[in-house]
Each structure stands twice: as C-alpha cells, then as structure tokens.
Design goal:
- With 384 residues, the protein is α+β, with helices and mostly antiparallel strands.
- It has three domains: 2-81, no CATH class; 105-274, 3-Layer(aba) Sandwich (Rossmann fold), CATH 3.40.50; 288-383, Outer Surface Protein A, domain 3, CATH 3.90.930.
- It contains ten helices and 24 strands.
- The strands form six sheets. A seven-stranded mixed beta sheet has the order 14-9-7-8-15-18-16, sandwiched between helices.
- The longest helix is centred in the first third of the chain and has 20 residues, at 82-101.
Length: 384
C-alpha cells in the first residue's frame, strides 16, 4: 500500500491509499505537489504510530479505524467516487491541521498572501463561499500565496505558517469541487525557508451586485472580533481566547474592512498595503477582559444562576461581548452587569437586588426577560 506524507503548516499527516486506483493516486500527487509530499511505496505499518492519518478506502469506517488503532487520529474517506474523495481529502487534511493547533495558535478561516520581498502578510477574512479562494487565485499571481482558506498564526510572534493546500474550485454547480495545485495554476508558492509575519487583517466585504466602489476603513474592535471569532477555530480552547484575539487585532493596528465589487479592482490597494504606503491610521482599542472561573455545583444552595462554564467577556468602549462555546454575543449594559455579578452563583432574588443597587428600581418582568435571554444565549445557566 502506498502513501503520501505531507506537512500542512508543519503538521505531519499521512495519506494512505488502500484503494489502488491510479487516478486517485495521480490526482492526489498533482493536487498536493506544493506541499512537497514524501512518497511511501511500502512499509506504512512502520510509520503510523502517533501520526495523523487520512485513509482512502472502499472499506467501512469501522473496519479501517480498527486496523489503524495505533495512529494518533484517523479520518476515513470512501474512495468509490473519485471527485468526491479528492474534495473530501482536502477538507480532512485541513481538519487534522486545525485539531493539531486548536488552543495553541490563531486559526483563521482566511486566505493569506505576503510580500515576496519582506514577508509581510495579510490575512483576508470572509465567510465560506464569499470570495476567499477567488481572491487568493487572483492575488496569488502578484504576491506570495500562503493559503486560500486557513491562516495559521503564532500567538506570540505573529509568524504565519504557509499552508499551500490545493485550490478547491467550483467548475460545475452541484458537483464536487475540482482540486488544483496552486503552483500549477500560476500562483507563487512560498519557499520552505521563507519567514512570514502577519501585518494586516482585512475583512472582505464583496458587493455581489457589482455596484460598490472600492473603499476601505478601520473597524471598531468589537466589529473585528465578531468577524474573527466567527471565522476561526479553537477560540474556546485557547487561554484567554477572546483577549488573545483582541491583542491580535491591536497588534496589527486594527482590522480593515475592504468593500469591493471585483477582486481585480483591489490589486493596487494590496500592493500599497503590503508596501506600507497606504495612508491608513493605526487604531488600538482598550478593553477589559473577564473570564469565568470554576464553580462547584454542589456548593450551591437552592436554585441559582451562574455564568455558563467556559464563558468569557470583553468590554470595549460601549460594546459588551460574551463568548460562549466559540460564539460571540453582544449584550446590553444590564446583561453585562448580570453576567459580571454572577462570578458566584446567586438566586434570582439576590441577583435582582444587585441590579436594583446598580440601577435603581428595575421592573421584575423586564429583569426576568433579561435572565431568560441570557440563558437562551448560553451566557448564564440555572444550577442547584
């Protein structure tokens, strides 16, 4: 059995070809060429200990999982449909990368491109299906292409690890995306010894109607966090995750929203941006960060409210944000004060008394509705 050992952003992943179909092998070798895969003709059994595997096989998932139990983690792809298998392979390799770094690095669902001279890097953040790959395909011919959908950023140094994955291109609606090696499509792929550092965060805002004039502006920290947290992985596993993202935004002078109609119109903007010639003032926002501590349920007397485990909050200007299970919610001032007051569990009556102390008379029906909203959003919970 043959295999391809690749290292997306430095994470070893072994692709095992149980299916001997030469089209499957040739297609993978071509699509993943920019990651310089190491071909393993035999002896895969000797290298699977503690490594992440993606197995292309016609067998059932359970059969394959049992045979590769020594691996760190195994993904199984049914190989019968070649086009679907090729698209799923790209997805599964990316998932292994995200799992390996979750909680340790910033993982943005973003295209990443860099100046070939300085290594200064820009991450293009956008929701899936809104133009990241199209932007990478065009801009990657003028700058160094690092990735079209996954920016891996070191928390301390802002070093960006290249992940020149295959370009997943929709060629026929309703069919599997075609996988292309970025270098084969004319993109400039990073050299192994190049060093890249994040310099800019750009939130893409494409006008699909094609009527918007090209424009750009710094956005408030709260708006930037909503875009970044929604388009990221592993925030809840990162120590002080929400604060780490705020620091990331501040470290690059604030996020930029780029409004455009066609990506070809943006070339001069990105040339000036990466050359440091864009007249755009840096903006760093102050914030206060609050993290939920551990509360033992058996220490609670009666029915009480408490902060939901794992939640964290950030106050910046007049914005109050609470992160829960990887999602970000904007709360009112009283919602924030309720959440802050629940550093220790309180009954509804005691919590209402705290709000009355802060605000004066607070109608109980409005207070109860606020509690219901916060529970529904997963920000606080009932215990006891």
């Amino acid at each position: 059995m043959r295999g391809l050992l690749i290292r997306p952003a430095g994470v070893p992943v072994l692709i095992c070809f149980e299916d001997p179909n030469p089209q499957l092998w040739d297609g993978a070798c071509e699509a993943w060429a920019s990651l310089e895969p190491e071909q393993i003709e035999d002896g895969i059994a000797q290298v699977i200990d503690g490594i992440r595997l993606v197995v292309l096989s016609p067998r059932s998932d359970s059969e394959v999982q049992a045979d590769y139990a020594r691996a760190l983690e195994v993904s199984v792809i049914n190989s019968r449909n070649l086009a679907w298998a090729a698209e799923t392979l790209t997805v599964q390799v990316t998932m292994h990368l995200l799992k390996a770094y979750a909680g340790r690095k910033h993982l943005l669902h973003a295209a990443a491109l860099a100046s070939p001279k300085t290594g200064q890097t820009v991450a293009l953040v956008a929701a899936s299906g809104t133009g990241k790959t199209t932007a990478a395909r065009f801009l990657g011919r003028h700058f160094t292409y690092l990735s079209d959908e996954t920016a891996v950023i070191d928390v301390g140094t802002l070093r960006v690890s290249p992940y020149p994955k295959p370009l997943s291109v929709i060629e026929e609606v309703g069919q599997a995306k075609k996988q292309y090696d970025p270098a084969e499509r004319g993109l400039t792929v990073a050299e192994p010894d190049q060093d890249f550092r994040l310099g800019y965060l750009v939130i893409l805002d494409r006008d699909k109607a094609g009527k918007a004039a090209l424009s750009w502006e710094r956005v408030p920290l709260a708006e930037a966090l909503f875009a970044l947290v929604e388009q990221s992985s592993g925030v809840q596993r990162m120590p002080r995750g929400l604060a780490q993202f705020a620091d990331l935004v501040n470290s690059v002078g604030g996020a930029i929203r780029l409004t455009y109609s066609e990506i070809t119109d943006t070339l001069v903007f990105f040339q000036d941006l990466l050359a440091g010639e864009l007249d755009l003032a840096s903006h760093q926002a102050d914030y206060t960060f609050v993290e939920t501590g551990q509360t033992e349920v058996n220490s609670v007397s009666g029915v009480c409210y408490r902060r939901a485990p794992g939640t964290s909050g950030l106050e910046t200007g007049e914005d109050f944000l609470v992160a829960s299970q990887g999602k970000l919610t904007r709360t009112s001032l009283i919602g924030w004060d309720i959440w802050e007051a629940l550093a220790h569990p309180l009954s509804a009556d005691d919590l209402h008394a705290v709000m009355v102390t802060l605000y004066g008379p607070v109608p109980r029906p409005e207070f109860d509705r606020a509690l219901e909203h916060l529970v529904g959003a997963g920000i606080i919970e009932l215990v006891g």
